Amino acid sequence: MDEYANIQRYTLETGDIIAVSGGIGYGRMILRFTADTRMSMSEGELDFNYMMFQADTVIILDPPNLLATNNIWFRLDSAATGVVEILRC
Fold this sequence. Notes:
Elements: E1 6-13, E2 17-21, E3 29-33, E4 37-40, E5 51-53, E6 57-61, E7 71-76, E8 81-88
């Protein structure tokens, strides 16, 4: 892989929407959610075409990283605050 591993931590509040890069040059992504969180491939799909991750979920996306060139969108589902952590390696 071309890049050094990195960790990003985002604190979300009700209504916040974030977009993060899948990460060109990374083979694996590890995602951790502290509150119920929606994930989609575009901001407009957060209301109807999304995956829901429950609080305290850890998800590992092993190589190949098929999301490398895409943005991934996140929004809390019902909690007032929550954290999304992303490790790329």
